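Supplementary Note 2. Why include the ligand at all?

Several targets in our set were suspected to adopt different conformations when bound, so apo predictions alone were not considered sufficient. For every target with a known small-molecule partner we therefore ran a joint prediction. The input for zinc ion is given below.
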Amino acid sequence: MEILKIAHSIFDLFFPRRCLNCTSVITQENPLCINCAYQLPFTHWNLDKSNFAFDKLKILCKPTAAHSLLFFRHENPTQKLLHSLKYENHPEIGELLAEKLNPEILTQNYKGIIPIPIHPKKLKKRGYNQVLPYARTLSEKFEIPLIEEVLIRVQNNPSQVFKNREKRLNSIQNAFALTETPLDGHYILIDDVLTTGATISTCVNLIHSKFPKVKISVMTMACTI
Ligand SMILES: [Zn+2]
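The joint prediction is reproduced in token form.
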């Protein structure tokens, strides 16, 4: 163990770990320095109908409740964290964020957690679905089954970043499909960032078109404001 510790120290000397936000050298396992971690803009919302995420979604679909862990603004630490999670091979960020969730907000009896899938081509390129570490950690922590086999991505849409809401809605409408897996009860649908709500509402509406009585609460790691 000592040899391993020394080897790590030597490695750190030449390749020091850096804070994802401000790039200052860090020693702890956390991806952010203490200063940047302290600045993380947590929403402190409950998983309910009285927050901005629910207001965004309620005009597009019928979720039971909604929650986002962090506010997402350009150039704030959330943006850097989620960029690293999605594009820089840092799936552990999703796990860390799930650990930050207030456990008291999950009070209902949920039948399962459904992560929004990415297209197999994107999965091959990226190596993982960036939503999955967050979804899996919540599933393990709260003992809610992770259901990956119900919702599938059938179209690989190009980046949504520069499209307005109408264009996003149109391009995403046929991107998902449901398998034959039956749904019954209350589920949590999970995505990384709630922006226009196009992706999430498409999935909620798709599930409700086949299972109108199913309840879907939406959780995302971040919400744009
Ligand atoms: Zn920092």
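The pocket of zinc ion is lined by residues 19, 21-22, 24, 32-33, 35-36 (CB under 6 Å). The two ends are 47 Å apart (CA to CA). Comparable summaries for the other entries are listed in the accompanying table.
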